[in-house]
Amino acid sequence: MACFWLFKTKGNPTEVNAQTKQKAHLGKIGMLTLYLLLVIQFFSGVYIYAMDIIYPFSNIDALGKYIQENKFENTKIVGTTDYLASPVSYFTRLPIYLPESKSMGTFITWDTKRLDGKLEIPEVFNQMKSMVEKQSAPVLLILSPELKVLKDGSPSPFEEGDIAEGIKMRNLAKIDKDCMEETEKYYLYIVEKK
Questions:
Q1: How far apart are CA 176 and CA 184, in angstroms?
Q2: Is 80 in contact with 121 (CB distance < 8 Å)?
Q3: Which end of the chain is more exposed for a tag (fewer CB within 10 A), N or C?
């Protein structure tokens, strides 16, 4: 737009020759293009603003609200995938256990201690088993993506079952409303001793 403005204002306005006629013609095309771009920007802005009102950016607020309403603030929480689960600590005001780095934290430290890539569910279950065995209270597990098991040859959501000897897990809730950040879908499970 600045280039168009400079092009339009450069030159002597009293001079009429072939070059100024060409500038005038280009000026009309340029103005039409400018108006078209402004109209497109206006409607795009209205659309994006409407989507921002209709859909939240993230499901983390709904997850935090669920944790607070169900009194899980003081429950030990384990969250994987770590970058999706770590914002929960904002609502609990306590660190959560992040299996990728095998440590408690309120945020992720991107260092060599943290495992790059996806952590396999059996490894998460091994860490959960040792954690549950050390305490008597249940542990809240936040998974993203959803845990699926094979039933009759097709994958279906995990409902309830044993994850290790003496340790059971059951599906508690899912927070997977439509939002702008499509990866933020949370699946909550309670893990406890039998």
A1: 7
A2: no
A3: C
Over residues 47-93, the pLDDT tens digits come to 999 988 888 888 999 999 999 999 998 899 999 888 899 999 998 89
Q: Report CA-CA distances (Å) from 149 to 124, 128, 140, 154, 159.
A: 15, 18, 20, 8, 9
Q: Which structure tokens are listed for 175?
A: 């927070």
Residue at 142: amino acid letter: I
Residue 4 identity (one-letter amino acid): F
On the question of a cis peptide bond just before residue 138, with omega within 30 degrees of 0, the verdict is no
Handedness of CA 179, 183, 187, 188 (dihedral sign): negative
121-144, pLDDT tens digit by residue? Answer: 888 888 888 888 888 889 999 998
- Give the pTM: 0.73
Burial of 169: CB neighbours in 10 Å, binned 0-12, 13-18, 19+: buried
